Amino acid sequence: MGWTGTIINGVLLGGLYGLFGVGLALVFGVTRIVNIMHGEFIALSAFIALGIAALFPDAHPLLLILPVVVVSFVLGYALQAVFVNRSMRLPDPLAPLLLTFGLSVIVRNLMIEGFGVNPRHIRAGDFGQLSIDVFGVPVGVLPLVTLALAVGLFVILQVLLRRTKLGRIVRATADNAEIVRLMGVRPASVYNIVMGLSFALAGVAGLMLALRTTFTPFSGVERLLISFEVVVMGGLGSFWGAMLAGIALGVAQLVGLRLNPNSGFLYANLVFFAFVMLRPNGLFGARQ
Amino acid sequence: MKHQLVPIATLGVFIVLAAAAPWLVGDGGIGLLFEVLLMLAMAQLWNLLAGYTGLVSMGLQCFVGLGGYTTIFAANTLSVSPYWVLPLAPIVCGLVGAFSALFLFRLRDAYFSISTWVFAEVVAMLVFIAPGLGHVTGMTLTTARGIDYETFLLANFWIASALAAGVVIGIYALLHSPLGLGMLSVRDDDIAAASIGVNVWRNRFIAYVAAAAGCGLAGGISFMAALFITVTTGFDLNWVVAMIFIVIIGGIGTLEGPIVGTAIYYGIRELLTNVFALSGSWYLVTLGAVAVTAMLIAPRGIWPFIRDRFGIEWLSISRKLADAATPARAATITPEAATTSPKRI
Is residue A52 part of a domain? Predict the structure, then answer.
């Protein structure tokens, strides 16, 4: 496979990374919480998808998205309503951080007790093996669908936030949670919805991850750093920035692995560094 | 200097207990206390950054691993006892910390936190692919073989005790100095601090390099005692995760908080894994539940909660006006009261 293939696959991998980061960016943009639980959202969603797939063994794997999104949304909503909102009354940003950290440790270890640490996989059937030719390079359909899905979800999210009443309320709450109270908005309810949406986005990411590769309860925490990098590079709270950052990191990782197969995330991390040094506020961070 | 009595008495009790520890507890107990004291030192250093200068680092594991590799590599290469080369660990880590601060300090808040983590990953990866550092198999300390095991264990324990005491005394003295006051002002509001002539960058730089060097020394001691290091164990994110857990549970921005937090952290571990013989994951579930409960009930940490409820002081760093004869006139600056990091818009 030539360099073209490496770059195309890097872009496709970037679609997945963008998906990892976008939910995190949404939560940070609105609530200012650095959500350490996000990795566990991804892994838990993969297990939820696995459970639903077992119930409907003949369904097309992509049809799993709907139930996974619904279950994830409800879980995210409930977590925010029951736990996280309570820690947000203080001005100290470290309280919610430790709270989500504590929850992530609980969720991860309950997954270990409940599901074990053996790698699992959702059988994608023929769909997982399909590939098409792009510029003479065979490209997997599944990664292509992941990227398309990521772009599609970003567009939906953008429309939701820019064009709907809910979006206006969310943006107003992000700007000033105290003032929106005067307009009859309960910031806590907005945060519940935002956390639900974030978990739903992580749900899609978890499902695509589970279709693409094997996963364990540790799959989420292993991808937490790349998710954070996507958010920071994109500019905290920016979705298109997250998408482009994901693609940049995906390409950097695959190019780096081609140069030195032992380098892991080294090149992606170096690209991250070079970038934040040049633009300390991220790609679209000027507004923040 | 009446208010110095309690801290000095605490130090005295600590020295007596540390000296008598080999007769009070067995080898297993010494091993555990060794680990506890190193973690206490590291947690205090994380607290120095996050609690006193507003630098929330998620990358201190970088210096733990680097300190460990420095010690073992230097001892093996020079064929000398690891004790001779142990001072290299804080020097190397202090230099790397100073170098990384040059560019990490361009970043703020969450950007800084994530970037310190990324920096730690980069260093870990460079150590992993560097020739002569053992790659996946790691490095074994070969020059400690001649030392009697019992002596080695005790010497390491006393070094760890000295480090823990030294870090606590150092931070206590620092926070009573003008430099420490400058640090507190930087944490509370760096722009206001700069406007009254505090050199924000320099204050943060000193704290960061000190934390890097201290964590490097702790890592050097830890892996010298373990006789073995790999990239996975040395640069393990769990080092900094434990520091964060201990400090925030115990009470950020207080000297007592990390002490209380360390006791809770290891208390739970010993209770659940040794007394109740639960598996590691149930222990971690409990630890997570403690973190969640503490943040919901006492979000500023357990020590401030106890202190305010019972009105006790231990290693307080609050400043009282010299002429404050009556309590009504006593103006105190309680650093714990303020938020740790102002929101940036």
Answer: yes
CA A217 to chain centre: 16
Domain hosting residue A168, numbered range: 3-230
* C-alpha triplet B281, A118, B272: angle, nearest 5°: 10
Query: In which domain, by residue range, is B202 found?
Result: 22-337
Kindly report, residue by residue over A19-74, the tens digit of the pLDDT: 888 888 888 888 888 888 999 999 999 999 999 988 888 888 888 899 999 999 99
Q: Is B108 helix (H, G, I), strand (E, B) or coil?
A: coil
| 241-270 of B, contacting A, C-beta below 8 A | 241, 244-245, 248-249, 252
Instruction: Give a yes or no: residue A250 inside a domain.
Output: no
Q: Chain A within 8 Å of B108 (Cβ-Cβ)? A: yes
Model pLDDT, residue B337: 41
**Domain assignment of residue B285, yes or no:** yes
Q: Please check whether residue B237 lies inside any domain of the structure.
A: yes
Residue of B221, B246, B224, B223 lying closest to B234 (CA atoms): B223
Q: CB of A166 within 8 A of CB of A193?
A: yes
Residue B300 domain-assigned?
A: yes
- B321 three-state secondary structure: coil
A249 domain residue, yes or no: no
Q: How many domains does chain B contain in total?
A: 1
What is the length of chain B?
A: 345
Q: For chain A, how many structural domains are there in total?
A: 1
pLDDT above 90 for A139: no
ipTM, two decimals, is 0.86
Which residue among B117, B284, B339 places its CB closest to the CB of A225?
B117
pLDDT per residue as tens digits for the range B282-335: 888 988 898 888 888 888 888 888 888 887 777 776 665 554 444 443 344 444
- Whether the predicted pLDDT of A136 surpasses 70: yes
Question: pTM of whole model > 0.90?
Answer: no
Q: How many CB pairs under 8 A join A and B?
A: 134
pLDDT tens digits, residue range B69-101?
A: 999 999 999 988 889 999 999 999 999 999 999
**Binding-face residues of B in 15-74 toward A, CB within 8 A:** 50, 56
Q: Is A81 on the interface with B (CB under 8 A)?
A: no
Would the CB atoms of B115 and A232 count as touching at under 8 Å? yes
pLDDT recorded at residue A283: 63
Q: Is residue B7 part of a domain?
A: no
- Say if the Cβ atoms of B248 and A228 lie within 8 Å: no
Measured CA to CA in angstroms, residue B52 lies from A168, B179, B274, B282 at distances of 38, 11, 36, 33
Interface probe for B, chosen from A103, A276, A277, A288 (most Cβ of B below 10 Å), is A276
Look at residue A237 and tell me if it is in a domain: no
**Residues of chain A contacting B289 with CB distance shorter than 8 Å:** 102, 106
How confident is the prediction for chain B on average, in pLDDT?
A: 84
Identify the pLDDT of residue B215: 96
Write phi, then psi, for A215 (nearest 5 degrees): -140, 155
B244/A270 Cβ within 8 A = no
Burial class (CB in 10 A: 0-12, 13-18, 19+), A147: buried
Chain segment B107-164, per-residue pLDDT in tens: 877 788 889 999 999 999 999 988 888 888 888 888 877 778 888 888 899 999 999 9
